[in-house]
Amino acid sequence: MLVTLKVKRFDPERNPSTWWSTFTLEAEPADRILDLLIRAKDEHDGSLTFRRSCGHGICGSCAVRVNGANRLACKTLIRELGSRITLEPLLGLRVEKDLVVDMDPFFAAFRSVKPYLISGDPLPGDGRERLQSPAERMRFDDSTKCILCAACTTACPVFWADDTYIGPAAIVAAHRFLFDSRDHGGAEHTAVLADAEGIWRCRTAFQCTTACPREIKVTKAIAEVKGAILRGISR
Ligand code: FES
């Protein structure tokens, strides 16, 4: 099949304004968006710029806006979209070039919730591991699936309006540790969430949940973190 791929372009060294490039490409229905991007770059315009690494939905680097919705370029097949495809960079983050956005503010928000185990407990007798029951592990299983692609945060209308809002991905990261029975750093994970740009800016738009390529129940996780904060950080 022939696919028309329209890509929003930006290169501050060539043009201070954005423009559109259109590529007509031969494709198979089972090809991915990423395959089309690679083909467009290899065969038509070597300056076309996009991010990707693993190619298998693990690293989170290839999230883009596909026909108006955030998707992973390496997990989205042409047959899901038809023959006319429009690609734009993620919204709410500064565009560096073409489909590449500046991820620094996103990762700064992620780091601000201290996304690592904080446990004051000494290691148990054998000094090797802190045991956890399967039920305790399942309590935060969903939020471990995050690949930090930013699809949720950049689908959030609150974030579009105010890029200092911490965003859903950082709250999911806080959830992952807040509900871990081995962690005792709840106050530290959630300190930043009480700020004016923290969790209470969420308006429950559900766009984050719709956008998540890992199907994490993001809105539910946010609600659970809000509840824990209201209860005084109890799980
Ligand atoms: S390239 Fe790694 S998630 Fe798409």
Poorly predicted ranges (pLDDT <50, ≥5 residues)?
none
Query: What is the H/E string?
Result: EEHEEEEEHHHHHHH
The count of helical stretches stands at 8
Note the gap between the termini.
52 Å
- Extended strand count: 7
How would you portray this structure in words?
This protein is 27% helix and 17% strand. By secondary structure, it is α+β, with helices and mostly antiparallel strands. The longest helix is centred in the last third of the chain and has 13 residues, at 218-230. It is elongated and about 60 Å long. The structure holds FE2/S2 (inorganic) cluster. Residues 52-55, 57-62, 72, 74 line the site of FE2/S2 (inorganic) cluster (FES). Residues 52-55, 57-62, 72, 74 line the site of FE2/S2 (inorganic) cluster.
